[in-house]
């Protein structure tokens, strides 16, 4: 048994629907501007350009149902997303076999300190301060491929205090799930425990303390997260 000089960090583990066992998280990849309408609202060309990714930290994922409003910001935005959980990986994975590596799917939110992200963009600096802060990725239980298949269409919506804010369909993803997995595997060695957040439809906007966000994906149910 290996001795460590400090206590080992806890393993980040996510709930799996219908199981007492949990899914351990290794890495979190997030694709940017993967719905055309969202690309437009963010001031970018919606044409299919090469995908780009940024990362959150594994311990940014949070299944508590609460989102603590973070410090040093006055403009926190919701971004409703479908997350993809991998059971295996590798490098240079062909698109045709990419779905063989998927364990399941979960509802998630890519919460963003938009004001800080904007400052970093203007300065040509990395976005982590706007994206990878504590508990910035609320996530629901994982639904296994055996239970829900590999959804490639279906409504994705987000309501804030009952008001519809975001609405799209998984068939509007510019880069589909198999393509994301294949592309990432050209640049990184993917592995079991990796999570890919697949992008958000248009309608992103701010939340404040006391707001209640409800994300729904057809076939996966819904998840409610309170801003506290």
Automatic annotation (TrEMBL):
The keyword Metal-binding applies. Residues 28-228 form the Fumarylacetoacetase-like C-terminal domain. GO terms for molecular function: acetylpyruvate hydrolase activity; metal ion binding. It holds the Pfam family FAA_hydrolase. Keywords: Hydrolase, Metal-binding. InterPro entries: Fumarylacetoacetase-like_C, Fumarylacetoacetase_C_sf. This is Fumarylacetoacetate hydrolase family protein. The lineage of its organism: Bacteria, Pseudomonadati, Pseudomonadota, Alphaproteobacteria, Rhodobacterales.
């Amino acid at each position: 048994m290996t001795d460590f000089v400090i206590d080992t960090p806890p393993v980040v583990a996510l709930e799996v629907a219908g199981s007492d066992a949990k899914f351990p998280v290794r890495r979190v990849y997030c694709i940017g501007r993967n719905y055309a309408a969202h690309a437009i609202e963010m001031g970018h060309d919606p044409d299919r350009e090469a995908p780009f990714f940024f990362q959150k930290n594994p311990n940014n994922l949070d299944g508590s149902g609460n989102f603590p409003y973070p410090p040093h910001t006055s403009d926190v935005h919701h971004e409703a997303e479908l997350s993809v959980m991998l059971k295996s990986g590798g490098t240079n994975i062909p698109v045709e076999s990419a779905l063989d590596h998927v364990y399941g799917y979960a509802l998630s939110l890519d919460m963003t300190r938009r004001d800080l992200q904007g400052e970093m963009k203007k300065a040509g600096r990395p976005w982590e301060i706007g994206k990878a802060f504590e508990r910035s990725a609320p996530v629901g239980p994982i639904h296994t491929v055996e239970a829900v298949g590999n959804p490639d269409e279906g409504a994705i919506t987000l309501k804030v205090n009952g008001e519809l804010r975001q609405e799209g369909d998984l068939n509007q993803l510019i880069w589909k799930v198999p393509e994301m997995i294949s592309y990432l595997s050209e640049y990184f060695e993917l592995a079991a425990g990796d999570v890919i957040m697949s992008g958000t439809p248009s309608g992103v906007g701010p939340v404040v303390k006391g707001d209640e966000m409800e994300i729904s994906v057809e076939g996966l149910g819904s998840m409610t997260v309170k801003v506290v």
